[in-house]
Each structure stands twice: as structure tokens, then as C-alpha cells.
Model the fold of this input.
Amino acid sequence: MGKVDTVTKAYMRKNNIFADAFNYLIYDGKPVVNPEQLRELDTTEIALPFGLRENEKSPSNDLVQKYRDILKSAVVMQEDEAAYILLGIENQTDIHYAMPVRNMIYDALQYGKQVADTAANHRKNDKSFRKCTSGEYLFGFYKEDVLKPVVTLVIHFGADEWDAPLSLYEMMGTQNEKLMHYVQDYQIHLIDPAKLTEEDLKKFTSSLREVIEYIKYSKDKEKLSRILKDNSRMLIDREAALVIKTITNTAIEISEKEEKIDMCKAIDDMLSEREAKGEIRGIEIGEFRMLVKQVKKGRLTIEEAAEDAAMSVEEFRNVTDDMLKEG
Done:
């Protein structure tokens, strides 16, 4: 497992972050999924459709095994009714152009696992159950048995817009209406930073908002500077800061001893360190900062500021890219 996968899984595994993602997806940001009622499950999806036959002692060659990123069980209360569901998250830093197929397999295997587990439970406790029909006996799933709904969410940890198919239909080589009427579709649920609006971001209540927002604007220095300036929400938990650092390659220091990281201060410290190492040359630091402010206020063009700093435009841009985040 790569560093990026390790960091994003550790972050999304936190119950408050996990719940926040699904509250945004399903409930428009309302706190319906309770972090305290989430229980992590084994992410290994193993299924032998409809369980083992009565005379089978071990799994056959039909056994299928896949690994999800994160899977949790949840109890959701709405209108005095409890819904028992399974929630899964797939973290994607790179765009996956066959994601509908991948998620469909995960969900199908999970439903197959539920059927197999139910059948195994019936065989173990068959004396306590009513007389079953031949079909129920053969497949181990009784008429009154039910399945827990499975909802899988894809979170894209990338600044580029997700341009891959969102449904199985979109992957088909034909769109013949008559034929497609008989082809089952499968759609993925996606959180894509590039497509989220400011109003969408406000629906997140955890540090996931800042992580997604930072990724969204990581290639837009002006907007990134705006969200960092005097932003009290940028005091975030260490895992969130680590995700930002790893995904966007922001060269900030994150101490293992600190549970909260002030991103504004961390970036300011990074810039100060660059200055101390002499990465800004040929002009006094104070004068350089003044030129940057003049550019931001529109009083100077970058070309004029670069000339005043005795630099090329390219050199001036390279040095100021991170400084422009300061606000």
C-alpha cells in the first residue's frame, strides 16, 4: 500500500469524518449518521454465491475475494424507524475509468456474503427454524430473510475534475434504447472537489471541508490564499493536515506531537524557512513582500514587479507562488 493510500484510509476511517461524508451524500449535511453508532467491519469481501451446499465441507473454486478500502455498519434513526445499513468508502487519488464495475463487484460480493452468512446461520440453528421448502433448504435463504442495504461512496482526492463514467450505462459501446432497456445499470456516488460549490462545502461539518477545499483550490493560488487568510477553521486535526500535505505536495512540517495543526502558521513557517535559506535573493525580504502585495492589489503587473526585483518573470513567479498563499 502506498503512502497516499495509507494516509487517506487512516483519515477517512475516523468515525466523525466517515459520518460527515455520508451525511453530506445522503442527508444534505444534516447529522443523521451518528459517528458513535458506526462499527468497522472486515473489508475483505469473500463470497460463494448462495453459500455452500449441504454436502460441501470447504469452499469450491467459485470463491471470490476482493478488498474494499473501508466498510462500516450503521444504525440510522429517522421518523422513529431504525435502518441497519452498511456503508463503504473507496478513496481515489487517480481517476478510475472503470469505477462503476469495480464498485458493482464490491456491492454484489457484499450481498452474496450476507446470503452466505444467513445460509450458514440457518444450517447451524436449523432445529430452531420452521420446516423449510425445498428451495429454502437448497439455497439456505428463507422467504422472510432480508438483506442490509449497502451504500458505497467514492471520494476523489484530486484537484482535476473527475471525467470518468459515473454509471455502467456510460461505459457501454451501444446506447440502443430497446436493448438498453434490458441491461441493468449501476451508478456510483462520488464526492469530487472540483465539482463542489461553496454551498456544497458548507454542508461538511468536520475537517473534511478544509481538506476538500484545499485540494479544490490547490492549483489556484489566489483562491487558496483567500481561504487561508484569517480562517479559524484551518486549525485542523493532524490526520487532515497530513492528507493535505501528501495529496498536494505542500512542503509543511507536521509534528507527531501535535494533535492540531494551524495550516496558516505552517505555511507561513515554510515560507520563512525558504527565506532563511536564501531562496529569495537580490532584494531585501521586506521589499519583496511589498512587491508581492502590490501585485495582489493590482497596482503592479508581475512583469513590473519582476523588473523591480531584478528577476525574470518566471523566477519571480516561482518564488512568489507559495508566498501568495499568505494573504
